[in-house]
Amino acid sequence: MKSVLVVEDERDIAQLLKLHLSEFCDEVVIANNGRDGLSAAEKRPWGLIILDLGLPGIGGLEICRRIRENMRYTPVLMLTAKAAETDRVLGLDTGADDYVTKPFCLQELVARVRAIFRRCAALQDDHEEKTSSVIHHDGLSIDFEKRQIELEGRAVELTAKEFDLLAHFVRHPGRVYTRAQLLDQVWGYGHEGYEHTVNSHINRLRSKIEQDPSKPHYIVTVWGVGYRLGDGTCGLRPGNVQHALH
């Protein structure tokens, strides 16, 4: 069931989102302030929560923190009127899966919502096909059911998108991915110009799992191409790439 909770205090925007999302979602519910939004989020599972950053009462970042701390995993798409890179990074670090900056293109937001539902469906199908929910790789332990990571027995706290990104590499060892391919297969959309989103997530993921992020061991740069899961060597030059991109 595609259910969406929209937490947005600008009523015109909230109603516009409900109108367009209702065309392909089974249920769209609006909360017009942070307190009502948090209460609605805690009462039941949702397929997606669209969360405004600047809310009266409880702010969007605090709601996102509580969702990630106390509830089952739910995708969060954050809306923000702040265009600064630091604000976007803060939202992603808090646990948001994606963000859209106001004023936004409605068609793009709808496309991102569709992409999140496609990605969740694909992850669910992939999970059901696996006989084991835990994969081990070179000191990493990835529990897909619990969405938890351990490095040499030590728990590592990742955001939802950082987990999805690492999981994608671990599920496809040796495969080289361009930034555009990662946008399409992990984020679920391939909008030109958003490659910096991949770069920022790769950098933050490396800061959490690499002993020396400047010399990555797990997420390796294939120069001029993209990234792959490391096999104990450092980044490869284009002439050494063995896996063709399609």
Describe this structure in words.
It is built from eight helices and eleven strands. Helices cover 41% and strands 19% of the residues. The protein is of the alpha/beta class. It folds into two domains: 121 residues, Response regulator (Rossmann fold), CATH 3.40.50; 109 residues, Winged helix-like DNA-binding domain superfamily/Winged helix DNA-binding domain (Arc Repressor Mutant, subunit A, Orthogonal Bundle), CATH 1.10.10.10.
Q: Report the CATH C-level class of the largest domain.
A: Alpha Beta
Strand line-up across the major sheet: 2-1-3-4-5
Query: What kind of sheet is the major sheet?
Result: 5 strands, parallel
The CATH topology of the largest domain is Rossmann fold
Question: How are the secondary structure elements laid out?
Answer:
Elements: E1 3-7, H1 11-21, E2 27-31, H2 34-43, E3 48-52, H3 60-70, E4 76-80, H4 85-94, E5 98-101, H5 106-129, E6 134-137, E7 140-143, E8 148-151, E9 154-156, H6 160-171, H7 179-187, H8 195-209, E10 219-222, E11 226-229
Parallel strand pairs: 1-2, 1-3, 3-4, 4-5
Antiparallel strand pairs: 6-7, 7-8, 8-9, 10-11
